[in-house]
Fold this sequence. Notes:
- Chain A is 76% helix and 3% strand.
- Chain A contains 18 helices and 4 strands.
- Chain A has helices spanning 2-8, 15-38, 42-68, 76-96, 105-124, 129-149, 151-154, 178-201, 203-213, 215-221, 225-251, 261-274, 281-299, 303-317, 321-328, 330-335, 338-371, 391-428; strands spanning 160-161, 253-254, 378-381, 384-387.
- In chain A, the strands form 2 sheets. Chain A has a two-stranded antiparallel ribbon. A two-stranded antiparallel ribbon of chain A has the order 3-4.
- In chain A, α3 packs antiparallel against α11 and α3 (42-68) packs across α12 (261-274).
- The longest helix of chain A has 38 residues, at 391-428.
- Chain B has a two-stranded antiparallel sheet.
- In chain B, β1 and β2 (142-145) form a beta hairpin.
- The N and C termini of chain B lie far apart (52 Å).
- At the A-B interface, α6, α7, α12, α14 and α17 of A face α3, α4, α9, α12 and α14 of B.
Amino acid sequence: MTELTSRVAPPYPPLSERLKFYGIWVAAALVLLALPKVFSSGGALTTFSLIGISIIFSLSYNILLGQTGLLSFGHAVYYGLGGFLAIHAINIIGANKLPIPLPVVPLIGGLTGLFFAALLGWVSTKRSGTAFAMISLGVAELVASSALILRTFFGGEAGISANRTKLMRLFDWSFGPQIQIYYLIAAWTLLAVIAMYALTRTPLGRMCNAVRDNPERVQFVGYDPHVVRYLAFCFAGFFAGIAGALAAINFEIANAAYLGAVQSGTVLFSTYIGGVGYFIGPIVGAIFVTVLSLSLSDLTSVWQLYFGLFFIAVVTFAPGGITGLLMMHWPLIKGGTFGRVLPSYLMGLIPTLAMLAGLVLAIETVVHYTVNPGDDPNIKAFGMSFNVSSPTTWIVAFLLIVVGFVAARKTWSRLALAWDDALKAAREKGYHT
Amino acid sequence: MFWGRVVHELITISTLNGILFGMLLFLMASGLTVIFSMLGVLNFAHASFYMLGAFFGFQISRWIGFWPALFIAPVLAGALGAAVERFGLRRVHRNGHVAELLFTFGLAFAIEEVVQIIWGKSPVDFRVPPSLDFPAFRIFSTNYPAYKMFMLVVSIAIFVGLLVVLKKSRIGLIVQAALTHPHMVGHLGHNVERIFMLVFGVGTALAAVAGVIAGPALVTQSNMATLLGPILFVVVVVGGLGSLPGAFVASLLIGLIQTFAVSMNGSLAGAFGPLSPTYAHTWLADIWGVTVAQVAPIMPYVLLVLILIFRPMGLLGTRET
């Protein structure tokens, strides 16, 4: 037996590998500590807090989508319930003067998420694939509609609010200022990320991958895919609950929108855009989508449309998400053949950008005519100023789209050829991944 | 005597409305089911085509009248659907089923945004055409509008037409064969890709027909797809994914359940008397005081959970996934 394990188990990693591994986490902790020193404005702190919450939520979602292959349309249920329980916990603790400090409250949210995932998960995970997606949607609608009926607990449309500063203090931290909330969220984010990374390294994490790739084979090995899916679902619910509780602490309010379809859709967007194939993908996606949604809304009034179109583009052209797209280049960079595709990239970039500019111009023009037709025709979007009533704008938009599209198709097929060429050369040198 | 008549009236009206809602659901669910069976993708944006049908119908009936709109709007929406299949889904197909489902999810999101940009967020004034704006008949003391009868007739006519086409015509036979054995149909030399595009187009056009005829009776608003979409998926899962008869039974079932629930005013408080004052301000009071009509929106989802516990494949389903 020991002989077998010593043969099967991977060799203990050398010191340099271990240093590298732990070094990443220590570096992440240092970055989180130093971040508010570099960007100390209130807006930046709020953004960082939102990103931290979104990272935990997206990573918890990826336990389902990326690790286990379960596409859920109702993950916000566990996020929202965690948030509501956290708010109620803060109120109860504050009213009864219980000796529980605020940093523990996210754990209450996590346990709530775990409890409801354990309760609803068994039915939800009975089936996988498309049926699971539809069931998760149905369960989410059930919970979201019930939340509007149970007014005492969920507070109806207005929601439930709490005061986070009235709890027992640790080290004289009141958790009133945003900077203290930032550190609370940062600490929890680091903890949760480490825990979720560790989860992917456990036998359960490996079985989840196996269930995703070949459930039949898993059955042959002697595992029940349903049980594995259920366990993954519970863990996802736990971490989603933590994220929800942190959001509730951050905003000091929880309302029905926490549980809703929009929240579920947002986490799906950020996880998928970041990339489900790599552990770091959802982190990238959470940062990207949070920053994008905060900054795009300043640039244009119809940012959600661009957001949706961007998502469609990612699904169509880059199913691996941003990280998948970047990691594709890894063998080329390692093999030193990246230089061969670079010219084709630059060539493809010009007509693609022209086409996108034309599209933006057309959308903004149409939006101007339908949403606010009486306003000044000289509008500004993405830093460009143009007159929507002049025919020149229309012609330019049309030409940009058509010519850009035709040229882009040509250059992209050239790029594909150059790409294959470079990849082949890199593979010949022995760099596969 | 009086109560007997009231109950009788309630049952008659609710049954009529329930069947009507069920048939409308089936107009959409049939397209969704056939698309799912053939392409293996559950079209998340199916309810969006229903919404597009309603808005196209509204716009066209404003320009040239309701009757041309009844034909032009579904054709437009169907063409759009076929284009989505041809230039979008077929591309995404390589990336697997999750990518396909997500593509339609993103599409639903984008369509809602576009509709909001063009027609705004508030309901548009889509009226019943004057030629149908009269009471069809009286049941006891209630006038039943002719337009609702028209909706019922149209949906039943399409249902019968669909049945005949599927069972009798050559293209129907191919579609039926492709439902269960798509590869075999391809091997027999049929252009499966073109059939897929056609089916997608016709399926979305059917949803659009439902949109045009439901638009004046219900509310034509940019959130109508979001409201109806989940119920539609409940229908398809409850009936059994990929089963057309199952979708029919589930549509009628959910149509009837929801209509009857809406018309009932009973609550636990009404049945067992008010709650003792000690509990009056706890969350128990919410459950105690809620009426059946108020829980009507969650009925389909309760049904979904029950079906999943007792019959995970759906009522008439045979497939595991």
